[in-house]
Amino acid sequence: MRDLRRDGVPHGNLPLELDVFVGRATELAELAAALDSARLVTVTGAGGVGKSRLAARAARRRSPRDGVWRVQLAPVRDEEFVDYAVVEALGLTDHTTRLPRETLLAHLAERELLLVLDGVEHLADACASLVTELLGRAPGLRVLAVGRRPLDVAGELLVPLAPLGTEEAVELLTVRAGQRHVTCGYAAGPDADQREVRELCRRLDGIPLAIELAAGRLGTLSPGQVLRRLDDRFRLLTGGDRTALPRHRTLRTAIGWSHELCTPPERLLWARLSVFTGPFDLEAAEYVCSGDGLAADEVLDVVSALLAQSVLTREESPAGVRYRMLDTVRAYGAGWLAATGDADRLRRRHRDWYVGLATWCELEWFSPRQAEVAARVDAELPNLRSALEHCLNEPDGAHLGQYLAGALWFHWVGCGRLSEGRHWLEQAVRLEAEPTAGEQSRLKALWVLAYVAILQGDTVPALAALKECREEAERSANPTAVAYAEHRSGCLALVTDDLPRAEALLRSALRRYREIGELNSNVLMGQVELAMARAFQGDLPDAVRLCEDVRRVCEDHGERWARGYALYVLAYAAWSEGDPVRARELLADCLGGAHRFRDQLGSVLAVELLALVTAAEGDAAEAAVLQGAAGRMWPSVGLPLFGSAHYNAPHELCEAAAREQLGDERYEQCVRHGARLGRREAVARALRRPGSPASLPAPRTAPGGRSVAGARTAKPAASPTRRGGETAG
Predict the structure, then answer these.
(1) I want to staple 628 with a disulfide (CB 3.0 to 4.6 A). Which of 243, 557, 572, 671 is the partner?
(2) d(C-alpha 485, C-alpha 491), whole Å
(3) Does residue 274 carry a pLDDT above 90?
């Protein structure tokens, strides 16, 4: 055996980089650390994600005594030729009768080198066998494997590679287009072009291969044109660098390479999983994808196989372990699903699963599992959206669409999704459903739509939806819908400052709820809203009584969301009665919960009231900062303080007191400072304890001759009942 390349200096066969390597600084550092600590490192990830390029760049930075050698395994179709491929890559010739593995062992025994095995997924068993023996017999050897699945060898350290982030993806597209002398003007062009570039990179999932192929099209198409043609991405993104391996010439080939390696059950599940438009859990996959060739109890094993091949990725979330496909991989599977003729059945099963999930989540919202429900719906939102689209686009799906949009009221209202909720609800109520099947669902969608519009400060559509809901509910003798329509009408009266009407409607709705045995977070919010109406009318003891009752019921049931609004009213009462210490304690609890639920309305109301409490504690500058922070938060919530004189009065009182103490210039400076705070910073700032024991300063005169402490009874700062507070179930 003769070594054709050994010349006494570090060497290898890595080709020179022909273009600029973009980004991946964090991943390179992670891979370098892995290579320092383990003798076998495997970079895994989806097709086209940049595994080979990252591995080559990392390997190029190594300096083993005997060099870095890369073995390209993509052309090898038979496992028995793996050893020969390595021998060839190392430049070894051996005319003896030894087996190629014996040749390798003899050559590597005394050498220190890095062996890069690129493309191990389709030859995993053979590669695992080879690597195990080589590492055991060649102490100076390190192996860097690259593939869509691990080798599952003892001591293997995995480095999963994700797609590029948005900024690095944009940089890659810009650099590659520039290398092709493309001057589309988008790199430094108008904002619209820059937005199109970012959206193009997002639609391509940050996959480097897809982005590089797209860059090749920018000589003839603008970013916007490429973006508009992405629906047929596999036809469009062809060509590319002719020196690339055949599997890299088109996106279809890159992903088809993985597909070709799958077993029939794996291909079947890949196709069926394409109906999911976001992360999914195992239970969803078992329900949606089982049947007709794939039993439910087989799904786990096939999912595991797809994970190992990087067709799926696994992620931890507050909702538990979930799986996802990159959109490009999913689109490939969808093409195969369409070819099977089974797509409609799978979409219906997907829809049914998520309608059932929404039903469960609505019921469990009023329970100790409320935080779990919030996390679950957040995680499932892409698939819930897909189910909504399916319902609303199917001729016979209107009632299911109305049902699903209404069932998710707690998410729209309680978890910061008002605008999206309104979008789905408005679409749903425009559809005609079967009278018997859809009547209840349509009525619920109407009052939930009204609730959302009220919280957004949009009274005209709220009135129209409530009028239709009430009339149809009375015509059909539906006491539940009548109660909810009356409740939401009372809420609307509250935020439009018609307090006597608000009180009458809310009391009537609460009575109806008791008669029909309705008890949930929405019902409790009705009682909180009634308490707010009583507080606005000066009856603080009644408001406190009502909210203490709500707090007790919430704590009995483990409910946290409506409880937060009850705490808000109790804090308002404590502040009004001259106890800012107690008010701050209650608001800290309230704001912490609202922030965890991402309830933007509850958060901004609490920050507004904490500004008032801070002023009462004597820190006018900090009160102004918090008012500025709240001012920045309101545009993402709705009409500031609902445009209500009663809700706005405490805000005005706080501002007047702070201006009086600070002067206009200093007050505005503090407000501007607060307006620069992000949401997390604002919440953290609002929750910060005052530097000294809080004490109520001597009453300062507010407009109209009222003191800061005494002026409040007539008008509270913000009510939980209004927008974040109405959770409406």
Answers:
(1) 671
(2) 10
(3) yes
Report the alpha-carbon distance of residue 674 to residue 625 in Å, rounded: 4
Cα of 268 vs its chain's centroid, Å: 28
What b/e string do you get for 93-121 counting C-beta neighbours within 10 Å, with b at 16 or more?
ebeeeeebbebbbebbeebbbbbbbbbbb
Distance of CA 55 to the CA centre of its chain: 30
pLDDT tens readout for residues 453-465: 999 888 999 999 9
pLDDT score of 579 more than 80: yes
Q: How confident is the model over 88-98, as a mean pLDDT?
A: 73
The CA distance from 296 to 716, in Å, is 56
Rounded mean pLDDT of the chain?
Answer: 85
Residue 130 near residue 153 (C-beta atoms within 8 A): no
Bridge partners, 701 (sequence order):
707
Q: Within 10 Å of residue 589's Cβ, how many Cβ atoms?
A: 18
What are the structural domains of the chain?
A: 2-160 (3.40.50.300), 166-252 (no CATH), 574-712 (no CATH)
Do residues 522 and 481 make contact, with C-beta atoms less than 8 angstroms apart?
Answer: no
**What's the pLDDT score for residue 700?**
31
In the block, tokens 């009004």 appear at: 576
- Total Cβ atoms within 10 A of residue 679: 17
* Distance (Å, whole) CA 642 – CA 495: 6
- Cβ neighbours of residue 255 closer than 8 Å, sequence gap 6 or more: 47, 48, 328, 329, 332
- Tokens linked to 539: 């009856």
Tell me which residue of 303, 302, 345 sits closest to 322, measured CA to CA: 303
Q: Tens digits of per-residue pLDDT, 522-564?
A: 999 999 999 999 999 999 999 999 999 999 999 999 999 999 9
CA-based nearest residue to 300, from 312, 282, 313: 282
Helix, strand, coil shares, percent, the chain, to 5: 65, 5, 30
Instruction: State percent of the chain over pLDDT 70.
Output: 85
| Bigger pLDDT: 436 vs 169 | 169
Query: In whole angstroms, how far apart are CA 689 and each of 34, 617, 632, 680?
Result: 44, 11, 22, 16
Across the beta sheet with 141-147, the strand order is 68-72, 113-118, 141-147, 40-44, 156-160
Kindly give the residue spans of alpha helices, DSSP state H, lying in 598-662: 600-616, 620-633, 645-662
Q: Which residue in the block uniquely carries the two structure tokens 């395994």?
A: 73
Burial class, 675, CB count within 10 angstroms (exposed 0-12 / middle 13-18 / buried 19+): middle
Query: Is 368:308 a contact under the CB 8 Å cutoff?
Result: no
* CA–CA gap between residue 201 and residue 210 (Å, rounded): 9
What are residue 16's phi and psi, to 5 degrees?
A: -70, 150
Q: Indicate the DSSP class of residue 12.
A: B
More confident residue, 328 or 664: 664
Instruction: Tell me the C-alpha distance between 584 and 572, whole Å.
Output: 10
- The tokens 């590319």 sit on which residue? 240
Share of the chain above pLDDT 90, in %: 58
- The C-alpha atoms of residue 703 and residue 706 are separated, in whole angstroms, by 7
Query: 119 to each of 47, 86, 89, 149, 341, how far by Cα in Å?
Result: 10, 13, 14, 10, 33
Q: How many CB atoms lie within 10 A of CB 305?
A: 17
Of residues 408, 376, 405, 407, the one with CA closest to residue 388: 405
Count of C-beta atoms within a 10 Å radius of residue 334: 20
State how far the Cα of 266 lies from the Cα of 263, in Å rounded to an integer: 5
Dist CA 198 CA 206 (whole Å) = 10
3-state SS of 86-122 is: HHHHCCEECCCCCCHHHHHHHHHCCCCEEEEEECCHH
pLDDT of residue 434: 64
pLDDT digits (tens, 9 = 90+) for 3-47: 434 433 347 888 877 778 889 989 999 999 999 999 999 999 888
